[in-house]
Design goal:
Strand order of the largest sheet of chain A: 5-6-7-8-9-10-11-12
Largest interface: A-B, 22 and 22 residues
Largest sheet of chain A: 8 strands, parallel, barrel
Oligomer: homodimer
Number of strands of chain A: 12
Helix content of chain A: 40-55%
Chain lengths: 245, 245
Amino acid sequence: MLYSFIKHTQNHSIAGVVFFYLSGDFLLRKVISVKKGGEILKPGKLHLISTGTQKSEQLADMIESIHPEIDFIHLREKTKTAKEIYEMVELLINTGVPPSKIIINDRADVACVTNVRGVHLAFHSLPVELVKQTFKNLTVGCSVHSLEEAQIAEQQGADYVIFGHIYSTQSKPGLIPQGLAQLSFISQSISIPVIAVGGIKPANSADVIGAGAQGIAVMSGILGAKNPLKAVQQYRSYLSKQYDV
Amino acid sequence: MLYSFIKHTQNHSIAGVVFFYLSGDFLLRKVISVKKGGEILKPGKLHLISTGTQKSEQLADMIESIHPEIDFIHLREKTKTAKEIYEMVELLINTGVPPSKIIINDRADVACVTNVRGVHLAFHSLPVELVKQTFKNLTVGCSVHSLEEAQIAEQQGADYVIFGHIYSTQSKPGLIPQGLAQLSFISQSISIPVIAVGGIKPANSADVIGAGAQGIAVMSGILGAKNPLKAVQQYRSYLSKQYDV
């Protein structure tokens, strides 16, 4: 019922943030900004993040069959040079991936010269505010790990944040996960989309969206799966279920 | 006599490339393009390249006293993050270094957000052509090690090349230096400025300019000197002598 209404308002491009008091716990629940930057945003986005360990050809082979089911592909290639990331982007585009789906970590310059969707910034990257001001065509996202960081990112003009890690994950050993309650708190506290990351399996994708995330970001859950296409379809299936709540 | 003529033509902003047949060997000798991008170019430029091993504060302290004597400061900080290079640039500017003197290695995005002079590209960087097309306000240079690379850089629109290494240097152990003859050959073969790098001491600066380089690039010769200011003054002294040939 709730999601039927959200979908309805989206279809009519009503801009803004709509608040609902859910029955039961009266949790103040925010629905994602319906229109942002001229584009309709729908809940349940699936972001794929590259592992940084695969060769370009290997990654392109995997992505060729799954990209139609994925909303955004983040190239998080910390050890690759600008030239290598540029060549990886060219390969993905030649494989059929729309540039509008590609987001490059850290390197705004590579994102600009390849005309892809955007750049994703981390704590070691350039300030969000300057990147937004300088590269006006780029969607600019930012990794955050607390309410304070999320609020700063929003104030600086970030288009979205990636928040995590939500569940225990091998890539963050020994670190206490943020959990759904903190995800819900962050999502309610800022008005830009929150993408949840970290240990998200297909079966708990719907819970994550239910807690207020606009989407989920997955790395090994897809690229480390025996059958990446099947994994993507499972994520999609659970993300779609959320619409029927 | 020759240099008096060059200086004279520069003072009158005559654009283009002037050729001379020198007496003796009738070597076709090229004088640097007099006007390029609206700026008068003079032979004998002194480029300083950071070592990549110094902390920002340490580098800023050294540069504070010497930058008035230096034409360009290249930040070649391969292991530093975008944020760290950005903060280094901010520190240098706050120290009094004009942004128009600062060139950043590899990271065109950092150069753009800090509004500095340009970006210097290496073999592992983005293609010169794309960087020139995308970031029109940046001066774009390129490291080259052969005639072929120099010609490609020129064709792709590079504003200058850095060519080397000219003499034996500790930073290129075991590699045969290019030497003055090859520098002269490269300088005659392309019409953009050639900056010579590698093992250049104050006493041979004039020879390097005499071989056709528009300037020299120095790293340890200044930043590794016991007295960097004295070293800069020595380079300047020998570079000035060249004008009196």
